[in-house]
Design brief:
Belongs to the MscS (TC 1.A.23) family. GO terms for molecular function: mechanosensitive monoatomic ion channel activity. This protein has 370 residues and is α+β, with helices and mostly antiparallel strands. It folds into three domains: 179 residues, no CATH class; 56 residues, Roll (SH3 type barrels), CATH 2.30.30; 82 residues, Alpha-Beta Plaits (2-Layer Sandwich), CATH 3.30.70. The chain contains ten helices and eight strands. A five-stranded antiparallel sheet has the order 4-3-2-1-5. Strands 6-8-7 form a three-stranded antiparallel sheet, covered by helices on one side. A hairpin with a 4-residue loop joins β7 and β8. The longest helix is centred in the N-terminal third of the chain and has 53 residues. It is elongated, with a radius of gyration of 41 Å. The protein starts with a helix and ends in a 17-residue tail after the last helix.
Length: 370
């Protein structure tokens, strides 16, 4: 500065000279910052291409070794968002490197961080969705259709809520919000809701238990302890719907079903046993009656020969000898129709064999006093 002043430069001219030098230094500084930020982004962009190539060409060689295709499906689903996640990670580090004003830096880096968390949440959701779909396919193979439509949507909703809640907590933590107070408030609120809706929660937990334990499935015919019976049409979170034989819909809270005795006609298989009781006159040939009952049952279409029908002499009645015929059908829904056909045929065969159905009779003895 003294050299410039000794050469005759004025003070204003000297100040302009230094301002120009500071401006040039500032330009060089920003050019350097932007160049390094661009290099960081370009590196991560190139890295995303490498990661994508590895996931498409190298990783399937390892997943093909496993016995299940679950890892192949997960790998295929997460490849696009993983590549995008690497690119936005590079964008985040590039923005973080720049010496921006504090507010501008907070807003830009925060937005990019939120996008990264959203992509990571999407990756986790895709993995969870593939696992649930794979598990649903296995449920169909083991237990048939029905449970996959009940359990999987519920699990997907719970997983979605959990992932969104986790992502929200991560974002709030990044912006230095007090998460402890939020969690405490949610806990107190959940306790209050649980106390107010304890019956509803009990039914929901019971519904989840029914879906897991599976004492019956959709389409099964069940008998309840109170005498009601019918076919299960739906197993919901709060109630189970049963369609009775007179075409009415019976809606029962799940907690009641979990705490009562239920007879499932469709378990362990749909074969069902029918029973017919008849009375024949005293003096009838019991062996002939048994053979006639069994042969009549075998003539009816739908009666299984294995296990074969069986006839038994069960009791001495007031006016008849009580007989019972047991038979099997392949489907429990055919019991009533088959019973009707067997009854009609028994009347014909008994008439042909001379077997009599006795009417109730009563003999009265009168004693005359002397």
């Amino acid at each position: 500065m003294w050299i410039l002043f000794s050469r005759g430069y004025s003070v204003n001219r000297i100040l302009d000279f230094y301002r120009l030098q500071e401006t040039d230094s500032l330009y060089l500084f920003w050019i350097k910052e932007i160049l390094i930020a661009v290099l960081i982004f370009v590196f991560f962009w190139w890295l995303s291409k490498v990661v994508r190539w590895i996931l498409i060409n190298i990783a399937p060689r390892f997943t093909s070794i496993t016995a299940t295709d679950l890892d192949d499906r997960i790998l295929k689903r997460i490849t696009p968002p993983i590549s995008l996640l690497v690119i936005f990670a590079g964008l985040y580090y590039s923005v973080s490197y720049l010496a921006l004003p504090q507010k501008v830096h907070l807003v830009t880096s925060g937005l990019v961080f939120i996008v990264n968390v959203a992509i990571l949440t999407n990756v986790a959701y895709r993995c969870t969705d593939e696992i649930l779909q794979w598990y649903a396919a296995r449920l169909v193979q083991r237990h048939g259709e029905g449970l996959d439509r009940q359990l999987v949507p519920l699990a997907e909703k719970l997983a979605t809520i959990f992932l969104i809640g986790t992502a929200l907590i991560i974002v709030l933590k990044h912006f230095n919000y007090d998460i402890l107070s939020l969690v405490t408030a949610l806990g107190i609120g959940s306790l209050a809701i649980g106390m107010a809706a304890k019956d509803t929660l009990a039914n929901m937990i019971s519904g989840f238990t029914l879906m897991i334990d599976r004492p019956f499935r959709i389409g099964d015919r069940i008998h309840l302890k109170d005498g009601n019976w019918g076919d299960v049409t739906d197993i919901g979170l709060r109630t189970t719907k049963i369609k009775t034989v007179d075409n009415t819909l019976l809606i029962i809270p799940n907690s009641d079903l979990c705490n009562t005795t239920v007879i499932n006609q469709a378990f362990p298989d749909i074969k069902a046993k029918g029973k017919i009781t008849v009375g024949v006159a005293y003096g009838s040939d019991i062996e002939l009656v048994k053979r006639t009952l069994v042969s009549a049952a075998l003539e009816v279409e739908g009666v299984l020969s294995d296990p074969a029908p069986e006839a038994f002499f069960t009791a001495f009645g007031d006016s008849a000898l009580n007989m019972a015929l047991f038979f099997w059908v392949a489907d429990y829904t055919k019991v009533f129709g088959t019973t009707d056909s067997i009854n009609e045929l028994i009347i014909k065969r008994f008439a042909e064999a001379g077997i009599v159905f006795p009417f109730p009779t009563r003999t009265i003895y009168l004693h005359k006093e002397e």
